[in-house]
Design brief:
Elements (H helix, E strand, L loop, with lengths): L3 E7 L9 H13 L2 E9 L8 E2 L6 E7 L1 H20 L10 H18 L8 E5 L6 H7 L6 E4 L7 H4 L5 H8 L4 E4 L2 H14 L2 E5 L2 E4 L2 E7 L6 H9 L14 E6 L8 H14 L7 E6 L8 H21 L7 E4 L5 H10 L2 E4 L9 H8 L7 E5 L12 E3 L4 H13 L2 H17 L2 H15 L14
Length: 463
């Protein structure tokens, strides 16, 4: 079996690392003698020019450090102040500086140089996410001919957003050096196709094959899943002491998101305020728990969203709280996974209402955690990639607070029979298209894309 080489911005560290991508890729890495390469998380003035070994996992892990300048320009700069807002439909939040573009190119070129001595004939390389768009082009410059695939975990920007980049032509030049581009949803494949048509020299040869410049690139949809069986078990065995207790018997509504402007947290707070205004019978009958760990606190846009969210929560609690009930509990720190699983199982409503999202695995975790005999209701944004796979959820427009407030009211009053019908359909999809299905399907397609391409060899629901 050829080795699998995985490259991501951050390397999963620690003994016996966990997480969705680790679960998805561990078997393939271990069985092939594969390697995972990524940023160590350490910033050093004089980092090594070679990749550093990190023992303690069932596969080899090689890491690199960044200089303060590289961390500022490549990570905080181009990756998270340009590409992240662009991919989430917020080009107005981009901060474009020439040194950010230079730093992004420079770090990807450095990663490629460090990788080459560790590559072997027959390797397959799988690059993860927007931090590493140029990596295949840099590897090709160094003579690497191995099949290289890329998977984008965020949405792909449409033509108007791509045009806001300081270097849109270069984006498609970078992407042209991959054999296979993977996207979360049909929406993203469509955006890639239309953006490439308008902004680059592209000929579409088939629904999944493109001539980009003078190179043939295959592009398909591979919706990522979760380790569903493990999450079901965690939810079933969650300790009772971690359950939310209510003096009024209020049903729990839960949202779990990083505190990011793409997640729509202020919008859902405003919708909850409308719900309580228009439905006084629901006062003290439902309690909203929002867990929002901090992220990218160095970026100004994240400081703004935190202030807005805390202000809204305080205002709503001040307006509606009673002696025995507080409408919103806002937790601005991480909560352990096993505790989250139990909270999801307890929650009568799961809120997954991003303004833009690649997939959003919280939606799938919420469904997996439910008691099938008395399940809760998933409220899901039409702008999450998950909406393409989960039509049995209550699909809403997060920009419309009245639409979202009505969905909250409908979920509170939905019959058990209706909840069970919707949940059974959602759970079947979550279980059958789990994270192992995702990785196996992508890697099968990567093998095919490096040979004579035969779409009929792929599962029918992917082609």
């Amino acid at each position: 079996m050829s080795r699998l080489i995985v490259v991501s911005n951050r390397l999963p560290l620690g003994d016996n690392p966990s997480g969705g991508l680790v679960v998805a890729l561990e078997d393939a890495l271990r069985s092939s003698g594969g390697v995972w390469i990524g940023f160590s998380g350490e910033v050093a003035d004089d980092p090594s020019d070679d990749l550093q070994d990190n023992p303690g996992a069932p596969f080899q892990r090689l890491s690199f450090d960044l200089t303060p300048q590289d961390h500022e320009e490549y990570y905080l700069g181009y990756s998270n102040s340009i590409l992240w807002p662009l991919c989430h439909g917020r080009p107005n939040l981009m901060r474009i500086l020439p040194e950010y573009v230079d730093g992004y190119r420079r770090v990807n070129a450095r990663i490629a140089r460090m990788m080459v001595p560790h590559l072997k004939e027959g390797d397959r390389i799988w690059v993860q996410d927007y931090h590493l768009f140029p990596l295949a082009a840099e590897l090709r410059k160094l003579g690497v001919t191995a099949p290289i695939g890329h998977f984008l975990h965020t949405p792909f920007p449409g033509p108007a957003d791509c045009a806001a980049l300081p270097n849109p032509d270069e984006l498609f030049e970078w992407l042209s050096h991959y054999d296979l581009l993977g996207f979360q949803a049909q929406r993203d494949l469509g955006a890639f196709s239309e953006s490439a048509r308008q902004l680059a020299k592209v000929v579409q040869l088939s629904p999944t094959s493109f001539l980009l410049g003078d190179r043939r690139v295959h592009a398909q949809v591979f919706p990522i899943g979760i380790d569903a069986q493990a999450f079901v078990a965690e939810a079933e065995h969650a300790p009772d002491e971690d359950r939310i207790r209510s003096l009024t018997g209020a049903k729990l509504m839960i949202g779990v998101d990083r505190l990011d402007y793409s997640k729509g947290i202020p919008q859902r707070f405003r919708a909850f305020q409308i719900l309580l205004d228009q439905n006084p019978d629901l006062v003290e009958k439902m309690s909203f728990l929002q867990i929002a760990p901090p992220t990218r606190g160095e970026v100004e846009a994240y400081q703004v969203i935190r202030e807005e969210t805390e202000h809204l929560a305080g205002r709503i609690n001040g307006q509606f709280s009673t002696l025995n009930w507080t409408p919103i509990r806002f937790i601005h720190r991480p909560v352990p996974r096993n505790v989250l699983a139990g909270l999801f199982r307890q929650a009568h409503i799961g809120l997954v209402t991003p303004l833009a999202d690649g997939m959003n695995l919280v939606a799938k975790e919420y469904v997996a955690a439910q008691n099938p005999e008395d399940p809760g209701v998933l409220i899901l944004s039409r702008f999450a990639g998950a909406a393409e796979q989960m039509p049995e959820a209550l699909i809403i427009n997060p920009h419309d607070p009245h639409d979202l407030a009505q969905a909250m009211a409908d979920a509170m009053r939905m019959s058990k029979a209706e909840r069970r019908r919707r949940h059974a359909a959602l759970l079947e999809g979550v279980m059958s298209h789990d994270v192992a299905w995702w990785s196996q399907t992508y890697l099968r397609a990567l093998r095919v894309s490096d040979q004579a391409y035969e779409p009929d060899r792929l599962p029918s629901d992917v082609t």
